[in-house]
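Q: Here's a chain of 269 amino acids. Please give me its 3D structure as tokens.
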Amino acid sequence: MPQTSTIQISIINASTVLTDTEIRPVVNALQQQVTNDFRPAWGTDAELTFVPSGSTPPIGTWWLTILDDSDQAGALGYHDLTPDGLPLGKVFAATDLKYGNSWTVTASHELLEMLADPNINLTVFVQNENTTGTLYAYEVCDACESDAFSYKIGTVLVSDFVFPSWFETFRVEGSTRFDQTNNISEPLELISGGYIGVFGVNDGTGWQQLTAQKTPTDATHRGNVGSRRERRRTPHTQWVTSHTYKEITHRATLYKERLQQVITRKVAA
């Protein structure tokens, strides 16, 4: 696998549910995962810089932003790209905590998929017949996304991910390694809780989610507003650039003030 240049990524704490102290060790674990595990498989490396709450990310970096939920993302002005038009990933920590999922696995998931397909437009074409075929989304964590298949770096849970061989249909079962934790045994296999976006080129149905149960769905696995799944279905001409970070910081201050007002009213009631 050819080595690409090291990508500069800012990990930004924009959440109200996680402190800087909680996020810092996770960033260190993510750095180890990218350099020690992901780079040998995919040939892509990144240098991660933690941006504490209220601080400004370096100019010209990609962003992975830790947020509460998709509503907060919209309120603060985080959209599809950074203000410089560069890749932007989002982790909805409060949503994960609400449903009992690991936000650190989600952060790992979003980071690795952003590195593998930053423009959310890569696919693998599998030709079924002379005139039909299926496009598979180039997402490297969806097939094994369940927390049950995560692994630890130190004390931090991170996401499993597939290798390029997962997309190579000429491979036979058990012939090589298909994912980091070795839970997948053949190309395009979806293990429990896994899914992948598919596009039947002749179907006229657009992007669908194929689950481990081999049934397509467009509801349960639709994805939050602003997620990679939602953005893959959105033409790039409709993507929106995020506000300037000065404006985002201002909106964050107002957002926290509104939250405090809500909490105060509840206590008074």
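Q: Can you summarize the key feature?
A: The first helix runs from residue 20 to 42.
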